[in-house]
Specification:
seven-stranded mixed beta sheet; three-stranded antiparallel beta sheet; BirA Bifunctional Protein, domain 2; alpha+beta; 12 helices; binds phenylalanine
Length: 351
């Protein structure tokens, strides 16, 4: 090994010993600095003959390049080591499970409403939606319940301090029955030309689910509760159809044929005759108990007239059922208020 090779080997060992970039710069100075070994060799060339300068000069230059290459290599290695150390120190464990947000679910009553809509939808019923702050006219008067009618007292509710266009008041609707009138009036308007020409118009077949309000609060009554109205009007719609619709609906809703339905005579100002609808399960914890699930009846001629239809020609039935009660029965819940407390311990059981 000649002196130049030895110098290169020494530089390599020196650079390898340098553990930090600062150490390495110090080691570099010993070779390539102002009075470094390579620099000294270059200076020494002044004393050489032109012949020697050529060969020795080339060798020294080569040596310089080799030392520089070793330096660059070691610099890169140190920088890389530093980066690796930093990455290791700041490591993130991306495999840790995240903090997931707990997933919500549909409210049990919303589930019931969806079921009701799906089942009636399959029977050709439209689904309608209307205001919860209702006009006195739609909630009572148009439903054959004039201002002095005693039936109004059964529907004590929350009155609002504003006046409807007809001068009557507003109130939180006490039932979904006003939707019978709102929907039928729209339907009649849509078919006004056919009606005027004395032609038959398409049947009205609609349900209207939504929130309703009454001054009432105990385990089975809440001041805010749900109803689902139903209305089927045509030229030849009878109580027989109402019975068939209910039989279909309840057997579908509760997913059982082991279910009896009975109609109990009752009174509503807007239907005549009227009936309460009860169901009884043939098995299960409620076996044999009659449970009231809806009010119903043949739509009163005065109401058909308020729809804008001739009661001599158009006839049909209406019903109003309680989705909250249906939900209690379906899931075995015994206190209605649980649905509206917003307690997640209760609600999350329905996810
Ligand atoms: N609106 C009645 C109630 O709230 C129920 C009902 C609707 C009865 C339609 C007959 C026809 O009690």
């Amino acid at each position: 090994m000649n002196d130049l090779d030895q110098l290169v080997a020494a530089a390599q060992a020196d650079f390898a010993r340098a553990a930090t970039p600062a150490d390495l710069e110090n080691a570099k100075a010993r070779y390539l600095g102002k009075s470094g070994q390579v620099t000294d060799l270059l200076k020494g060339m002044a004393a050489l003959s032109p012949e020697e300068k050529k060969t020795r000069g080339a060798e020294i230059n080569q040596t310089k390049q080799r030392v520089e290459a070793l330096l660059t290599e070691r610099r890169a290695a140190l920088a890389d080591a530093e980066l690796q150390a930093q990455l290791k120190a700041e490591a993130l464990d991306v495999t840790l499970p995240g903090r997931s947000r707990s997933q919500g679910g549909l409210h049990p009553v919303s589930r019931t409403l969806e079921r009701i809509e799906a089942i009636f939808g399959s029977m050709g019923f439209d689904v309608a939606d209307g205001p919860e702050i209702e006009e006195d006219w739609f909630n009572f008067t148009a439903l054959n319940t004039p201002a002095d009618h005693p039936a109004r007292s059964m529907h004590d509710t929350f009155y609002v301090d504003t006046k409807a266009p007809d001068g009557s008041g507003h109130l939180l609707r006490t039932h979904t029955s006003p939707m019978q009138v709102r929907y039928a009036v729209q339907h009649v308007k849509k078919h006004a030309a056919a009606l005027a020409a004395g032609e038959a118009i398409p049947e009205i077949r609609v349900i209207a689910p939504g929130r309703t309000y009454r001054v009432d609060s105990d385990a089975t009554h809440s001041p805010m509760f749900h109803q689902c109205e139903g209305l089927w009007i045509g030229e030849n719609v009878s109580f027989k159809d109402l019975k068939a619709v209910f039989a279909d609906f309840f057997r579908n809703f509760f997913e059982t044929d082991d279910l009896d339905i009975r109609f109990r005579p009752s009174f509503f100002p807007f239907t005549e005759p009227s009936a309460e609808v009860d169901i009884a399960f043939a098995s299960g914890p409620l076996k044999g108990r009659w449970l009231e699930v809806a009010g119903s009846g043949q739509v009163h001629p005065n109401v058909v007239r308020n729809f804008g239809l001739d009661p001599e020609r158009y006839i049909g039935f209406a019903f109003g059922m309680g989705p909250d009660r249906l939900t209690m029965l379906r899931y075995g819940v015994n206190d209605l208020r649980l649905f509206f407390d917003g307690d997640l311990r209760f609600l999350s059981q329905f996810k």
